[in-house]
Structure prediction request, 587 residues.
Amino acid sequence: MLPIQHSIQHIYNCYTSKSITLYLSRGQQNYDHCILIMAEQLSYLSCPNPVPLQYKTILDIVQEHTQRNPDKEICVERGLGKGRRSLTYSELLNRSTYIAKYLITKGVKPGDTVALIGSNSLEWIIGEFAIFSTGAVAVQMYKTSESFAETSKILESIRCNVILIDVGSDDQYMLDMVEYVNSKGAAKIALNILLLKQSTPSSPFPSLADVTLTLEEEELSLPKVQPESTAFILLTSGSTGISKMVEHTHFSVVNARYLEVIGSASDRRDETCYNDRPFCWIVGTPMFNIMTANKRVFTVTEVALKKDNILSVWNIIKEEQCTTALLLPYTLIDILENMDRIVEQGYKMYAITTGGQSVGRHITEIIGKCTEKLIMVYGSSETGGVSFTALTPDTYEEGYIGELIPGYEVKITGPGGNTHFRGELGDILVRSRSMLKSYRNSPELNAASFTDDGWFRSGDIGFISPEGKLFLRGKSRDVIKRGGMKVLISVVEAAISNFPEIKDVAVVPVPDKRLLEEVCACYILNNDVHTTEAELDRKCRKILGSNVLGNSPTFFLRFDSFPKLRNGKTDKIILKVLALEKLNVKD
Prediction:
């Protein structure tokens, strides 16, 4: 028998067992109560996957769909006007296979990394599946407003020498790219750039439309891709300013049950889903709807980011008869503000799915007016969708993030990695066959992010209630969440501190009704230096991108001095209060 004081600690550490009973020694009859502590009282949740795992690749699933329904329209690209382009399964398979053979002639081999850069388009989708077909890894990147020289830093860290890119109408970006590939050390890349779209007639690079194969090249065999192979890499901000490279395998994606939640509200099939999230995001990548056979209707992401476009977005949803949609919380706020005009259009969806940041109870007002159901998903680029809940005004609970999606486990831990008892706040750890494989080329980051037994440290803080409900209480990392985008404070501060006119800088979050948080840069100028907020904004955008999809601050506030802590560091709590006063904003 174990003494009672030791047996409690024994159970505390043995968190993986579901039926551990505390044994009481016979000499302790004087206890008022005989306490039996079961494993269910520990902060652990599990939702087994009832569906057998499929040992297949993304390509295998697409082949099966193509054989069953080759002419099914699976992706629809819409503009704000009447512009409409679409892609069927057979068109996707045939065109991506053709481009894949071209990439093979350029030396692309299984396991290589191929960069895929640009905004949402049918050409992106073709390019991505072409990369998959070569057995290579698609490195998914959004093209921001920075120069190509800045983009090249990421490419070099990932070791890409083949790039599929859409520069859009950004002539300067094209000029920067031409200059880069003609510079010393970039000759290898100069031979392996393929434009997704032909942006200018004078471009020195070929585009998808220019690709032609000889009869011999058309007969090339595509490699057999293994399910455990990495399919794609998502880039997410890192504390050093260098993006973290999140690897997902074919196997993890094929067996991800959260695909059904995103595309079809988890309880219906063959839906038409509007989703304008960037293709380089985990919830935006087009392969998910292609694999689940739910038609995807999309626009470029910038459309929905502009609040004045909400009625145009809803008109697209109505014209395409979308039954579901994935919309970020700020878009739901735009819908609320225009509800009367939206209701006048006489169209209601089955379900809207949201996520990326917490939503308030007021958001549930859209239920019954423009959608039957409102679903919130919790997850990340690393974990995929972990949990979801159907929100209603009557059942809304602040911070509750729903039931686990099949195939996921969650536990809450404290110092030393010990699992907490229910009700205790701690770090949220996740384990699943559908989460990331690892961070590419980051052994130290992997060691810090994974436990020895395969749990992933999410970076979030929360708790599991005594009733077994999972709640989120915030981030353990120092980030600002702006409209679903994560802005790392350290990255912004490092960039601004390099400006010669800046003596000191501190970035603080300020509340925003639409985007949840906004980025405010507080700065002190060097003596006898003059600059304007417009000039600082211009310089930030050049380095950090826009204040929409990039990391640039929205507000710039000049101070003569910062409040300090005893250790000499800036007191950001007081500084935020001062910033809110200057902006006339209430926290």
Observations:
- Residues 89-105 form the longest helix (17 residues).
- The chain has four domains: 4-41, 58-353+369-377, 379-434+444-473, 479-583.
- Residues 500 and 526 are 8 Å apart (CA to CA).
